[in-house]
Amino acid sequence: MFTMSSVRTARRVSDWLRATILTAAAATLVLAVLAIPAGARGNMQISGIGVFNDACVPPAGSPPADLGDYPPIDLSNGSLDGCWYTYVSASKLNPSGTYIEQGTEVFVGCLNGTKCGTFETTYTFTAKFVDETFAEEIHGRCHHPIVGGTGDFAGAKGVLQFKDDVVNLKYDWRGHISLE
Question: 162 vs 133, which has greater pLDDT?
Answer without folding.
Answer: 162
